[in-house]
Amino acid sequence: MSYRVIQLDDMLVNRANDRHGELENETAAIGWLFSHHLGQMRKLAEDIVRSKGLYEPPLVYQEGSHFVVYDGNRRTTCLKLLADSKRAPNAELREFFVNLRVEWTGAFPDRIMCRVETDRDEIDEILYRRHTGSQVGSARALGTTGRRPRSSTGPAKGGSSTSPTRSRPG
Predict the structure, then answer these.
(1) Which tens digits make up the pLDDT trace of 128-169?
(2) pTM over 0.70
(3) Contact in structure between 73 and 158 (CB atoms under 8 Å)
(4) pLDDT by residue (tens digit) across 43-98?
(5) Cα(170)–Cα(14) distance, rounded to whole angstroms?
(6) How far apart are CA 111 and CA 6, in angstroms?
(7) Could you tell me the CA-to-CA distances from 47 to 22, 39, 67, 136 in Å, in that order?
(8) How many Å apart are CA 149 and CA 114, to the nearest integer?
(9) Measured distance CA(135)–CA(129) in Å, rounded
(10) Which end of the chain is more exposed for a tag (fewer CB within 10 A), N or C?
(11) Bridge partners (DSSP) listed for residue 3
């Protein structure tokens, strides 16, 4: 495990996230996030702009020349759409991200700090601990099979180019 500053363009929103299963590509994964979590995604984007970055770096796994996000897909998606609103799934969201980007003060980050993990079993353990916590045994946490889901390619978290990750006070 290491931490690296990675170009936003080199990061891929996980097209095979446990939330939605395997989809065709990153564009389909972005569309799915907005079609199933529209209100949360809009609030998250607003929070990222207000906070000027992310508080926790995305968890990524390198595949070739790209880094697939295993934890932090929603945050990474918001940053990608703030960087390029044309990638938004529809005209209303494109306008939303254009207007939100205007509120960003200073240089917009083109790279963010990420936690790079090289062991897929370690990624699965991290995701299990982060996403189940004290919910062990719940149907949501364990899925319909009663077993921990195995990630195929996952989510992420990040920061800004001048301050790749922000520390919470206290």
Answers:
(1) 888 776 545 443 333 333 334 444 443 333 333 333 344 333
(2) yes
(3) no
(4) 999 999 999 998 899 999 999 999 999 999 999 999 999 999 999 999 999 999 99
(5) 32
(6) 5
(7) 28, 12, 24, 29
(8) 23
(9) 10
(10) C
(11) 115
Query: How many Cα atoms are found within 13 Å in the side-chain-facing hemisphere of 22?
Result: 3
* φ/ψ of residue 82, rounded to 5: -65, -35
Cα–Cα distance measured from residue 100 to residue 42, given in angstroms and rounded to the nearest whole number: 10
Taking only the tens place, the pLDDT of each residue in 35-50 is 999 999 999 999 999 9
* CA dist list (Å): 65 to 23, 94, 122, 169: 20, 28, 21, 35
Q: What's the CA gap between 99 and 122, in Å, rounded?
A: 39
Q: Which single residue is written with the structure tokens 């390198």?
A: 62
Locate all alpha helices (DSSP H) within the chain, ordered by sequence.
26-51, 73-83, 91-102, 120-132, 139-142
73, 14 in Cβ contact below 8 A?
yes
Structure tokens belonging to residue 115: 């936690």
Q: How many residues does the chain have?
A: 170
Tokens 């209303």 sit at which residue? 92
